[in-house]
Amino acid sequence: MLILSVTIYLTLVTTYFTLLTVYFTLLIVYSTPLIVYSTPLTVYSKPLIVYSRPLTVYSISLIVYSSTLIIYLRSWTTYLVSLIVKLNRLIT
Fold first, then answer.
1. Dihedral, CA atoms, 68, 70, 75, 80, nearest 10 degrees?
2. What is the mean pLDDT of residues 6-14?
3. Nearest to 15 by CA among 3, 4, 5, 7
4. Phi and psi torsions of 80, nearest 5°
5. Predicted pLDDT of residue 36
6. For residue 59, which phi and psi values (nearest 5 degrees)?
7. C-alpha distances in angstroms, 77 versus 70, 81, 82, 87, 89?
8. For 15-73, what is each residue's pLDDT tens digit?
9. What is the secondary structure of 37-58 as a DSSP string?
10. 3 state DSSP class of 92
11. pLDDT grade for 1, boundaries at 50, 70 and 90
12. What is the DSSP code (8-state) at residue 1?
């Protein structure tokens, strides 16, 4: 009886590892075309990454510039509103 249990256990373990081997083999077979396909994309994307870095720096500088401009325009708006209020008081 013990020999039969050990045989069944070893058969199950062998089947399990065989299935794992088949699974990993299929993964390799299916992933190889993806790797082949993605290699030119990687080569193509590297110049895009290099090109996009200055654009990122430029866009950050535009954000800083526009924020500064907004602050400047708000201060002018505040000044003009206060001037209008003062002029309105002088007129009335």
1. 140
2. 87
3. 7
4. -65, -40
5. 85
6. -70, -35
7. 10, 6, 9, 15, 18
8. 999 999 999 999 988 888 888 888 888 888 888 888 888 888 889 998 999 999 999 89
9. HHHHHHHHHHHHHHHHHHHHHH
10. coil
11. confident
12. -
Token representation of residue 45: 């994307």
Cα dihedral 23/24/27/31 (nearest 10): -170
Q: What is the per-residue burial (b if ≥16 Cβ within 10 Å, else e) of 8-38?
A: eeeeeeeeeeeeeeeeeeeeeeeeeeeeeee
Q: Tokens for 28, please give them.
A: 């390799």
- Distance between CA 58 and CA 44 in Å, rounded? 23
| Nearest alpha-carbon partner for 62 in 51, 54, 50 | 54
| Angle subtended at Cα 46 by Cα 44 and Cα 50, rounded to the nearest 5 degrees | 130
